[in-house]
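Shipment paperwork, digital attachment
Item: protein structure file
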Amino acid sequence: MDRWVALVDRLRADADVLVTAFVARVRAIPPYGRGLVPTTRLEADADATFEYLLRRVAGHPVPERSAAIGPSIGRDRARRGVPLNDLLTAVRLDFTILWSALRERAGPDDEELLVAHVEDVWGVVEDYTSQIQQSYQTEAALLARERLGDQAMLVAALLSSDDPDPDDVVRAALALDVDVDADLLVAAAGAAAARELRRAADRLGADGRMVHVQSAGRFSVLLARWDGGPGAPVRAALAGVPCGVGPIARGLAAVPRTARLACEIADVLPRATGPHELADAWLPLAAGRLTDTAPELAASVLSGLAAAPAGERERILATVRAYAGVGSVGAVATRLYCHRNTVLNRLRRFTDLTGRDVTVPTDAAVVLLALESAGNSGVENDVENPAGAPTER
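Attachment content:
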């Protein structure tokens, strides 16, 4: 044992050689080669590391300050952004350098001594590596929470602005690690679908793309870097998620408006079973924005129905809605279990009462908007059963 301690202590006295060898070799690891850790910091940490390791290998007491070097390195490298695998590769160089130096200083009769202690040296280095790994992971988790907090704060400020300040857009882009001009998918879901939206976010983020989910009042808003277009790619990415999807945001500055549209779509389609884009929700959205004129629109288009008995009105409106949905007399007849001529007669009757022919696209659009407006403005019952209309007995 005395011979082993003497060999290790001789190496401690020549620790500068170890530091020089370590710094030279660690520069071959890409993050270190790029200067992510300054040379002065590398040298100081290497000097403290070899002092700690050699004390342990020799069985000497380890001062508290020396014992703290491993956790300190782990925290520092996490904050500098050195990938964990690269850090562990660098730390395990310690064994190679230590063992080579010990072999160089050993005498011809020390072969058995080296063999007897190789596992001890390896064990000390591995324990040291574990200390560094644990402190790195703990620090990385803290950094992730800090980053999420920064992201949430900056994205909340972005979403709350009608005309975001360019500096706020840049700060949000840095926090999200996305280009300010990147295309972004923006979706919004109510509280009942928040979990499904987060699962979709996890799927989208699995390929390394930027994904962020933000709480925004009654809604959860998803932002994701997007390389595809609208339509089928969006429906595939958000399959099964009841949510509103805004137009693709061409840059972060467009996100606030896009997010508001996504929230509106989610709001007007509360019973949606999947993702819906603007084209899917244009009718309730348009009607919802006619709040002040909805009663007048409904009355101007549908008031003529007051001349028909209540039962007939119901049958006519059911036929009109069905025809507007499919555009086929035969399909409507099948759906309503009646003859084609009955469908045609009801559509003609609707035209006679209102002056609108739903087989004409422009008239159909006005009628659908009027029916939607009637429901949104609370006058649907008046349309279905206008005041003073005769009732069937």
